[in-house]
Amino acid sequence: MSWLIVGSVPRADFPLVRGDYRLQGDNLLLDGQRIRVARGTPALMAVAAAAAEVLAVPAPQALLAGDIGTGEGSRAVYAHLVENITHIHHAGLTFHYLLPDIAWHNQVLWALEARNPAPLLAADAGFMYAAKMSGYADHYDLFTPDAGEMAFLADEVAPHPFYTRGFLLQEEDRIPELIERACAAENAARHLLVKGKTDYVVAKGATVAEISAPDVPAMEPIGGTGDSLTGLVTALLASGMEMTQACRVAALTNRHLGHLANPTPAFGLADLLPFVRRALELALE
Fold this sequence. Notes:
The protein is of the alpha/beta class. The chain has 9 helices and 12 strands. A hairpin with a 2-residue loop joins strand 11 and strand 12 (206-211). Helix 1 (40-55) crosses helix 9, helix 2 (72-83) runs parallel beside helix 3 (102-113) and helix 5 (147-154) runs parallel beside helix 6 (175-184).
């Protein structure tokens, strides 16, 4: 299935680009632009491309713009989607780091839902915040929050994770409760892949899988490992895999990735890429 990754690059000089991309070493090549793989949307894209190769499916396409926090690039991405919606023929979209903008978010969501058939919609990071703040979280097929973001989804009044009630570093043990609260308040997608010491796969409010091994604590300080999980599930969904199975396999692959790489805190996400093939093969066995 054709898939589109939508996000941003933290560079002021990066233009709006859309199309096929490829992974070359620790760089992504897209429409004449070279993007170093570190964290954020480029990390998601790199892992999705590496996993797609293993799955023998086309790598997702990407729609990106540069945004250093001003929102200018994010608004350009939102506008491009709305203005070109008749050319969005992808079976699914994964939304990532975009500055939350409820008005623009709603225009994008309504335009995509008007498509027949409507594409699958996955969201992480800034776009997930916008989805929750808009009141349309339950219109999405998948969110991939970490523990702190899960606390945000469970808080019916918080406008941003920074304003979530409670102390976020203590939320890990409360994830089952937070899942229940978020789903009851319709502040969660139809499926959740909650990232943490234990990964939870949730379907329509019910936890259907918990994955806690292999446990590689050294993965925690490596920036981009949450993005890699979203990249893995993106590639698996693009391959046509059923949602809950894709979430299980993605969580297990991300854990095998850490086990195989045997990382130190000095590792970056790009150092993990050579291990994607074997990690995914192990998870699929």
